[in-house]
Please model this.
Amino acid sequence: MKEPVRIQEENFSVEEEVEAIKRTSKRIGAVVTFLGVARDFSKGHTIEALEFEQYEQMALKALRKLREDTLERFDIIDVRIVHRVARIPAGENIVLIVVASEHRKEAFSACSWCIDTLKKTVPLWKKEITPEGESWVEPHP
Amino acid sequence: MIRVLLFGILATKTGTKEIELDVKTPVSLEALLEELRKRLPSLPEGEFLFAVNEEHASKETTVNDGDTVAIMPPFSGG
Model:
């Protein structure tokens, strides 16, 4: 089975990750996913692609800590986090968070907290590639 | 010698991803940043995040000879 926390250039399969988490326990009654996708339009500009840079030595460690913190903070069974880097054409997947729990409420809360915290704590930076040129993206709360 | 890594917009604006600074140590990150500005005047102003040897740090953190310092703009993953 693939690692539950990964940073990779290639695309990922949402179905594969959901199946992987379902296999971890028969107690699972709810699976909640957050899928971040590259939009083709932002603030009046056409976006051809996004490009993600990472601080490689820190980013994976930060994601693993995020998984541990999410497991500790919420009454859930498991969580998987996959984030892509390098060039991501508009329309493709960026990030996936999959949370499994006995009941849906905790899974929704954990998934929401996990993506919010990822944005604040993982050293990744996003650049928009437009027909007019490239620009780094200011963080969104 | 202190190895300084720059990321995102900071690397783009300065045209530098990595630079070595020969400064008297130990030195605070704040003082190191001032030294860096002398070498890279195009370094933007703003709120940065810091790491020393891959651990999160603050402006008050002390840096020693041989350390690797990362100066990072706010994260924008996800």
Observations:
- Residues 5-132 of chain A form a domain with the Aldehyde Oxidoreductase; domain 3 fold (CATH 3.90.1170.40).
- The mean pLDDT of chain A is 96.
- Chain A has one domain: 5-132.
